[in-house]
User: What shape does this take?
Amino acid sequence: MSVDLNALKTPGPTITALTQPFWDAAAQGRLRIQHCEDCGKAVFYPRPICPHCWSKRLVWKEASGKGQLKSFSQVDKPGHAGWLPAAPYVVGLVALAEGPTMLSFILPGARPPRVGDALLLAPTAIGGRVLPAFKSVETATEEKPQ
Amino acid sequence: MSQARGSVVGIGELKPQRLTSGVTTLEMIAEVSRLAVFDAGLEPEAIDGLLVGPQVGETPQHVPATIAEYLGLAPTMANVVDLGGASGAGMVWRAAAAIEAGMCETVLCVLANNREETAPRSPNRNPIREFDVPFGASGANISYALLMQAHMAEYGSTPKDFAMIAAAARANAQLNPDAIFFGKPGDVETVLASPIIASPLHLLEIVMPVAGGEAVIVTSAGHARSLRRPHVHLLGAGEKVTHRAVSQAPSLTSGPLKSAIARAFAQSGTRINDMDLLSLYDCYTIMVATTIEDAGLCASGQFGEWLRDHDLSHRGDKPLNTHGGQLGFGQPDLAGGMTHVVEAVRQLRGDAGERQIGKARLALVTGNGATMSEATALVLGVA
Assistant: This one.
């Protein structure tokens, strides 16, 4: 994938006042998700009430940025024309260490992705905004200067 | 006063505002639902029925699933009631009717609307649009590819296993002159040679969109008998809605049809091996694979072996989608799901012509919406 992801004309998020903290953190290269102070569970995507116990005592917390790949697909024929220059690219379901699952963009690694791969948050500029993408831990280690 | 048909046990109301500012209808639905459920002294998990209104400008389709996911509910009856100013009252009797029909016990009937100063730019502004689309996941193909990849990783199922489903549908379509693939045979190799759309999904594992229409008439059993025409009975039904986005699915390898099918069998006093016809929703090969396993035809992960052991044609031991399924017939959008009902009625009436199955007394019909999110199962039969 040699395309400049940031130059893509892809659809951005439809942000609301409630979800703004998530996207503000994303723009700074961080991952913040809600936690319920009553049942203790982590919540993704953001909501006004906890989907587990319907409490309103939700607070924003920094996520570890660690996750595991539950599934993935290499997309050859994107569903949105803005993604055509980037194809093929990989999207995946990331089980966050905190519990919830989110869909994300998976950066290319040294080898093709495998279900079960350990992942790390890898903030990436896509379509003019920084999004919480992920990459495999293996790839992250290989990139680290010795 | 005649016997009560249902009772209202909780209410919720939001203070009216002239304008809202950056608040979604979904957020308001969550707030007011919470008030009503807690007013009733109930816990959220007590809610097993969901009636909602249309969500213009926010969620064009799959409204009950979107709201169920948002609220963390998994209702066994879910509907949009679209009757304008009569929707609220219309929800109340529908809730009672659904309870009386044995589909659920406690129904949340909820309507809300935001009122923003400027109308939204996009017709779709729900969580899947906000949290999946920006990462490059638009459309059902990618979602089902993720389900398929998960099945292959968990159970070691192979591309060939899945291709057998498309090949069987194509073979059955050769006996249905109305099918879009009639006169165009194809086998496992044809499917595997078609291009990958989103790995591991091949083009020919995806239904072809077509124009079309399907309709059925339902009346009371008594009226049906008086018409002196061949008719088919609804013997049992089950439904379940668990999520909207694939990222929020409780499981990637088993869906809400498992529960819906079990309920339909329980209501009708039948078992999977009693079925003479399997009329299973087949938008993608993975949907049939999961349904075969969720219906109890084989153990989880064993659908490939099951397919090798059985003949799915009208002459076979397990006739499955004798009209060709949507994979062979084509998918006329939402009418595609109704083809499975129409074919079951045709077979049970003995009207299926060249593709008529031998014994035709009981049929299992399944429907599936979004990404293995919305599930309905019916057991149909003849007296």
About this structure: Chain B has a mean pLDDT of 93. The beta strands of chain B are 49-52, 77-80, 107-110, 196-198, 201-202, 233-241, 277-279, 362-369, 374-381. Residues 46 and 146 of chain B are 31 Å apart (CA to CA).
